[in-house]
Structure to design on (99 residues):
């Protein structure tokens, strides 16, 4: 009853860890045989999240160009629709009835 409890002991042998080698292997894995384009994209995204930096500047520029083009296209369509709406007879009659 009065004996102290001994601490448990673990037989842990530390292994050598090389973070640079592991990062290189992760980056090279998609380019090995059998990897398709989606695997490469997934690996690039995973690497980008690990580094907390953008993946590729060219991909970011392409996405930015597409978004800008889409924005101008939507604005153009809205301007054309507004013009057609304002030129229609129904709107003219409605505006004249308000006066």
């Amino acid at each position: 009853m009065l004996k102290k409890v001994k601490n448990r002991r673990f037989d842990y042998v530390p292994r050598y860890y090389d973070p640079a080698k592991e990062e290189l292997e992760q980056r090279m894995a998609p380019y090995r045989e059998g990897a398709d384009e989606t695997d490469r994209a997934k690996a690039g995204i995973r690497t980008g999240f690990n580094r907390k930096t953008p993946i590729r500047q060219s991909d970011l520029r392409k996405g930015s160009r597409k978004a800008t083009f889409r924005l101008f296209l939507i604005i153009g369509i809205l301007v054309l629709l507004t013009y057609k709406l304002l030129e229609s007879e129904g709107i003219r009659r409605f505006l004249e009835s308000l006066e």
The mean pLDDT is 78. The chain is about 65% helix and 0% strand.
